[in-house]
Amino acid sequence: MARPPSFPIRGAFPSADAVMSSLSSPVVHDDAQSALFDMGTHKAAGPDGFHAHFFQAQWKVGGTVEIVQNVFRGKKDISRVNETFLNLIPKVQRPVYVAQSRQIGLCNVTCKIDNQNIGK
User: Fold this and answer.
1) For residue 105, what are the contacts with CB-CB under 8 A and spacing of at least 6?
2) How many domains does the chain have?
3) Based on CB atoms within 10 Å of each CB, which residue in 72, 81, 96, 109 is the most buried?
């Protein structure tokens, strides 16, 4: 009887330690800047009321990277940064079911930057 082919997977996937290390690595200035400037400028604002355009226009003033880094370091209260509004936009005249609506999540720009930098 022929032996089935072997498919070695040892080393094919990162270790749990490597994954955890990458998730807790600090946010680099260039990564935060890239995440911010890749966002649409006037997409829906989050609960704080600011569009990405505000943060892009104020980038040289500073502060955005520090907020993001402080979230990763555990120095900033994440509940305010992670605050998100969920809006239902009806697809039909009188929706009865959630499926008859489009769901849109409105989160803060700093939260979006954090999310794009997790695991880099």
Assistant:
1) 84, 85, 86, 87
2) 1
3) 109
Residue holding tokens 């930098």? 117
pLDDT: which is higher, 49 or 6 = 49
| 106-113 average pLDDT score | 84
Mean pLDDT, residues 31-47 taken together: 87
DSSP per-residue string spanning the chain: -PPPPP---TTTS--HHHHHHHHTSPPPHHHHHHHHHTS-TTSPP-TT---HHHHHHTGGG--HHHHHHHHHHT-S-HHHHT-EEEEEEESSSS--SGGGEEEEEEE-HHHHHHHHHTT-
Residue 55 included in any domain: yes
Which residues span the domain enclosing 67? 27-117
